[in-house]
Amino acid sequence: MSDGPQVVLEVPTPHGPARVRLHAADGPARGLLLLGHGAGGGVDAPDLVAATGAARRVGLHVGLVEQPYRVAGRRAPAPAGQLDASWLAVVAAVRPNGFAELPLVTGGRSSGARVACRTAAAAGAVAVLCLAFPVHPPGKPDKHRRAELDGVAVPVLVVQGERDAFGRPEPAPGRAVALLPGDHSLKADPVGVGRAVGDWLARLPLSPVPAPQR
């Protein structure tokens, strides 16, 4: 595979077709990174673009996942249960397409980061990348979603804007937090996003997934 989206897959899910844009790693592949978009945005968000480039440079194939509601042209997000079920259907469909033996890292921005956290164990993810994790709705710190982050049992990187109105996660065992200039959009420092993501992915001890016993 060469530069740019090499394959665009349409994946059936229980809630309509999802779409995956696959980008090839630069050089030998160490793993596969699947990234989801935010609630009202798409996979062309600046932080997702920066993360994709960084991941490819350190040897990961990248799949940018568009949830069924976005493929259908809707901006209002589907309920959490539908998002999670569609995400896991995408994981199950993509892995056999030449990626079965590669370690899987999942992630996304904002709502997509929440989906990746909730489904990390079921997806078989070895690590989770969260861009602009929405800790709580703006102005409502009591309505926090920290349990979604705390429930992830594999390494996590959170890249967060210093002025994010959706809150700021704290570092924890197994969880690194990179604070960058800017707000929830993470538009202010795409170079910083790429550097944080690339450095973290480069340090992950990614090993091939053993082939199933026959």
From TrEMBL:
Top-level division of the source organism's lineage: Bacteria
Q: Cite the GO molecular-function annotations of the record.
A: hydrolase activity
Q: What sequence ranges are listed for the domain KANL3/Tex30 alpha/beta hydrolase-like? A: 31-170
Q: Which UniProt keywords apply?
A: Hydrolase
Query: Which InterPro entries did the record assign?
Result: AB_hydrolase_fold, KANL3/Tex30_Abhydrolase, NSL3/Tex30
Pfam families attached to this UniProt entry: Abhydrolase_11 (PF20408)
Q: Which SUPFAM superfamilies match?
A: alpha/beta-Hydrolases (SSF53474)
The record's section on PANTHER family has: TESTIS DEVELOPMENT PROTEIN PRTD (PTHR13136), TESTIS-EXPRESSED PROTEIN 30 (PTHR13136:SF11)
This one is known as Alpha/beta family hydrolase
State the organism of origin: Pseudonocardia hispaniensis
